[in-house]
Amino acid sequence: MHYPNGKKVSVNAAKPSVFRETIYSNRGMTLEEDINETNDFYKDSNKAIIHKKPVPVQIVQVDYPKRSAAVIKEAYFKQASTTDYNGIYKGKYIDFEAKETRNKTSFPLSNIHQHQIDHMKQVVSHGAICFLIIRFSVLQETYYYPAEKLFIYWEKQLNGGRKSIPLDAVKKEGYIIPIQFHIKVDYLSVIDKYCI
Amino acid sequence: MHYPNGKKVSVNAAKPSVFRETIYSNRGMTLEEDINETNDFYKDSNKAIIHKKPVPVQIVQVDYPKRSAAVIKEAYFKQASTTDYNGIYKGKYIDFEAKETRNKTSFPLSNIHQHQIDHMKQVVSHGAICFLIIRFSVLQETYYYPAEKLFIYWEKQLNGGRKSIPLDAVKKEGYIIPIQFHIKVDYLSVIDKYCI
Q1: Fewer CB atoms inside 10 A, N or C side of chain A?
Q2: Quick check: B84 and B53 in contact, CB under 8 A?
Q3: Rounded distance, CA B16 to CA B55, Å?
């Protein structure tokens, strides 16, 4: 992957244009990598099967060179219709979105989209364990924040309320996620303690 | 999307190169479209929340033209590490793969990959409702085939056994999926009847 200045970067940095700021500043990547490593550990230790969904792309043109793999020559990032992560833990359906902010005092709701709220409400109504993982990167703190609490702030915002969740509320209504060796974002420990 | 002959086709036809045969013959599309429509109906009627995962692509080069959306200029299809569909129904984690065959007497196991079997075994061990949807397109019959039965044929194949599941076995060990208006592949009715 190349930036317009020709600098080569990791292909893992590929993100929808709405997240371009994230790519340039390298924010967001760390949390995603930490969660992927955590999920690998959960899978390898047969604790839970949770996967990140592929980034959805709209494919426009594909070349099929002879004797080699198909090459996508033109495609565009699409907005995801669900959250990024889902899977199964102790028979329960798990569904979450992970977001990182450099803000030190609150989590801006602009990180979340209406269609993600819609999806989260749908799965919650069917009995899912659904939540946000919020990392305050400057504070180096990562929280488990229940979807049900997010919905309340979302509704308030739609009715002219504040456009962010104060850190104090995240601390009070959510749970700090412990960091462990190979389990950098041990969110299942929070589920074990508070949700099952 | 363009074929090498320059003929334009629906972008929905974009598929990994391993499925190129499927694209050319237009096989596979119908089942996927039918399942997507079914899932939309399930979601809109608040019966279940099941989504198809995006096709995973390895993005190599992205252009960011000024004042327009990011364009993926080079990318490759990756093999999926899970099945294509998952979600939640009545609090249960649902996970399945959908395959179409023109074979009239058996379902060739070459349609399935080892990593998909691994994934299915993992989610089954955690309590998932996991299955194959198999469409015999010439016969115009679509079956729900439990993952646990698939594992048996898979193991046999690895030990030199037959490389397909006979239609008779699919009929005996699986369940025919009824077709309904707006619910072209009503697999939840099978789950209701036999699995929950």
Answers
A1: C
A2: yes
A3: 8
Report which residue type is found at A187.
Y
> Does the interface ipTM go beyond 0.85?
no
- The tens digit of pLDDT for each residue in B44-79 reads 999 999 999 999 999 999 999 988 889 999 999 998
Residue-wise pLDDT tens digits, A94-120: 999 999 999 999 999 999 999 999 999
Q: Which residue of B has its CA nearest to A60?
A: B1
Q: For residue range B134-182, what is the model confidence (pLDDT) as tens digits?
A: 999 999 999 999 999 999 999 999 999 999 999 999 999 999 999 888 8
Provide φ and ψ at A97, rounded to 5°: -120, 145
* Radius of gyration of chain B, Cα coordinates, nearest whole angstrom: 18
- What letter does residue A111 receive in the DSSP assignment? G
CB contact under 8 A, B60 and A1: yes
Instruction: For the domain covering B16-54+80-195, report its CATH number.
Output: 3.40.1350.10
State which residue of chain A sits closest to B77, comparing Cα positions: A70
Is B69 close to A77, i.e. CB distance below 8 A? yes
Q: Which CATH class is domain A20-55+81-195?
A: alpha beta
